[in-house]
Design goal:
The protein has about 280 residues and is of the alpha/beta class. It has two domains: about 5-165, Alpha-Beta Complex (Quinone Oxidoreductase, Chain A, domain 1); about 170-260, Rossmann fold, CATH 3.40.50.720. It contains seven helices and 17 strands. It has helices at about 5-10, 65-70, 115, 160, 165-175, 195-205, 215-220, and strands spanning about 15, 30-35, 40-45, 55-60, 80, 85-90, 100-105, 105-110, 130, 135, 140-145, 150, 185-190, 210, 230, 240-245, 260. Strands 1, 4, 6, 7, 11 and 12 form a six-stranded antiparallel sheet that branches. Helix 5 (about 165-175) crosses helix 6 (about 195-205). The longest helix is centred in the middle third of the chain and has 13 residues, at about 165-175. The two termini are about 25 Å apart. The relative contact order is 0.15.
Length: about 280
């Protein structure tokens, strides 16, 4: 799928480590830590991978709105921030992984519960979530994830584009939540990073896509394929089949209701705790 990645890079804040590891002690590392205050430390313990997990040396880390929300109390998280990354596998009990450049699924499921047995590990009630819930994140020299969560990356996708895989996957989850035939009228509410990604993803399958937001510059950036953009919901044609919420308060936009889908939330027909998504609204 050809995404206008150069536009996206202009609108997202990204952070890259310099990867000069020569002075780093073997058992400690640099890390961005939040524990009621935000700190950059140079003596944080290097995580040790459990059996079936990998130690990943971080090459590039993304800054997400979720990280900002964590600093306001979201998920009551304390530890190393970050869940969008590209890295190189450093250690693993599976000899096929070391040296590979990877991205990672952020939800580390238990693998034993009813949700996991049903193939819904991303909704596992016992899961940990990289940099969000019970698992130190990737704004550090190293992070750990199960090898089943790793995705080897092709060499022709550079780090500054590949780092968008994690937020893009949140948008792609809509395609799992709501089957699309291609003939629907879809409205995406919210012109933040996630809203734009949702509109781009949906437009690869559906021709009639409208993105509603408050920021003309963002809407100009979002125009791709057949996407229509609107500053006011009053101009949205009635009869939307699907409304995708990428804003905290879609009702305030005045979009008539349709079938709703929220990136990172539970698929229809399932109950349980919501899955944290990498890009919160906005």
């Amino acid at each position: 799928m050809q995404m206008p990645a150069s536009r996206a890079r202009q609108r997202s804040t990204r952070a890259s480590w310099d990867n000069e590891m020569t002075s780093m002690p073997s058992q400690t590392m640099r890390a961005v830590v939040f524990d009621s205050t935000l700190r950059l430390v140079s003596d944080y313990p290097v995580p040790q991978p459990s059996p079936g997990w990998a130690l990943v040396q971080v090459r590039t880390a993304g800054i997400c709105q979720t990280d900002m929300e964590i600093m306001r109390g979201y998920m009551a998280f304390s530890g190393v921030l970050g869940h969008e990354f590209i890295g190189t596998v450093d250690q693993c009990d599976d000899g096929s992984w070391p040296g590979k450049r990877v991205a990672g699924e952020i939800n580390a499921a238990c693998g034993r519960c009813e949700w996991c047995r049903a193939g819904l590990g991303r909704h596992c009630p016992n899961r940990s979530v990289l940099g969000i819930q019970g698992l130190d994140g990737c704004m550090a020299d190293y992070c750990v994830l199960p090898t089943t969560n790793l995705l080897e990356l092709p060499t022709d996708i550079p780090d500054d584009r590949a780092v968008f895989l994690e937020p893009l996957s949140a948008a792609c989850e809509i395609l799992e939540q709501v089957p699309l035939s291609g003939g629907e009228h879809v409205v995406v509410v919210g012109d933040g990073r996630l809203g734009i990604l949702c509109a781009w993803v949906i437009s690869t399958l559906v021709e009639d896509v409208t993105l509603v937001g408050h920021h003309r510059e963002k809407l100009d950036t979002a125009r791709w394929r057949t996407i229509r953009t609107m500053l006011s919901a009053e101009n949205v044609p009635p009869g939307a089949d699907i409304v995708i919420s990428a804003t905290p308060c879609p009702q305030s936009q005045g979009v008539p209701p349709g079938t709703s889908a929220t990136p990172g939330q539970q698929p229809p027909g399932h109950s349980g705790p919501p899955t944290p998504t990498s890009c919160r609204a906005g």
